[in-house]
Specification:
The chain is mainly alpha-helical. It has four helices and no strands. The longest helix is centred in the first third of the chain and has 32 residues. The radius of gyration is 29 Å and the shape is rod-shaped. The chain starts with a helix and ends with a helix.
C-alpha cells in the first residue's frame, strides 16, 4: 500500500505544488518591485524640492560672492551640478 501511496503524493507535489509555489513568489516579487503612482509622484515632488533648494543655495552663494568676492573660489553654477540635465532626462522618461 505504501508503494502506491508515495508516488501518488510525490508526483502532484513535484509537478503541481512546486511550480505553483515558484510562480506565486515570482508574482509577488514582480508586484513588489514596481513603483506605484503615489511613489512616482512623491519622487517628482522630492526632485522638484531638491532643485528649488539648489537654486536657493546658488542665489545665496551669488549674494555672498557679490558682497565678498574672496569668500569662495568657485561660484555656484546650476549647469555644473547637472540638475537641469537630470530634470530633462526625467521629462523624457515620462513621455
Amino acid at each position: 500500500m505504501e508503494e502506491v501511496l508515495i508516488p501518488i503524493i510525490v508526483v502532484p507535489v513535484i509537478f503541481l505544488g512546486l511550480p505553483w509555489l515558484i510562480f506565486h513568489y515570482i508574482t509577488k516579487w514582480k508586484s513588489a518591485a514596481t513603483l506605484t503612482r503615489e511613489d512616482e509622484n512623491l519622487l517628482d515632488e522630492l526632485h522638484e524640492m531638491a532643485r528649488r533648494l539648489d537654486d536657493r543655495l546658488c542665489s545665496i552663494e551669488r549674494i555672498m560672492t557679490a558682497e565678498n568676492p574672496g569668500w569662495r573660489a568657485i561660484a555656484c553654477d546650476p549647469a555644473d551640478t547637472g540638475i537641469e540635465d537630470q530634470l530633462q532626462t526625467m521629462k523624457r522618461i515620462k513621455q
